Amino acid sequence: MENLIVEIAFTEFPRRHTCDGENISPEIVLKRVHAPYLAILVNDPDTPGRAFNHWVAWNIEATDRIPEGIPGDPAPTSPISCAQGTNSAGTIGWSGPCPPRGETHRFFFNVYGLDARLDLPSTATKRDLERAMEGHMVQYGGYAVAQYKRQEQTASTAPR
Question: Where are the alpha helices (DSSP H) in the chain?
Fold first, then answer.
């Protein structure tokens, strides 16, 4: 399987991409993309008991940049077209980092180059996408990792 390069502009999540901010998907830069379609899985392996999947997306036409702010729709058409499934929060699209306060979690960005479009419903989960990708993966890049630590709640930051 051929490697592709996955880059994000940070190693520590900016607040805007998290549950403490605007909760918008981050930009992902890709290099050496040769496959006609891409799929993305972003997960947090530090959640006790199971990995938490923050983003399940596929049928992204080959590109060198996935822009930030992909809407949480099953099939957004702007700023790019793609299909999105159900994350571990039970929503469609991006679900930003939101570990328990005071804990630091890691988030892995895995991008797959596929030789075909996939036919999956918006209820598709990480496991469904992984099954559908079998026999279609021609590239892989999973070397982008960022972390996030939510601050401890103090009297000045507590909701009123």
Answer: 126-133
**pTM score, two decimals?**
0.92
Three-class DSSP category at 128: helix
Please report where in the chains the tokens 């036409």 appear, as a residue: 61
For the chain, the structural domain boundaries read: 2-149
Note whether 137 and 129 are within 8 A (CB): no
Question: By the 8 A CB rule, do 133 and 160 touch?
Answer: no
Whole-angstrom distance, CA of residue 35 vs CA of residue 78: 21
Residue 151 has what DSSP assignment?
A: P
Q: What percent of the chain has pLDDT over 90?
A: 90
Token duo for residue 144? 């982008």
CATH number of 2-149: 3.90.280.10
Q: Side-chain half-sphere of 125: how many Cα atoms within 13 Å? A: 7
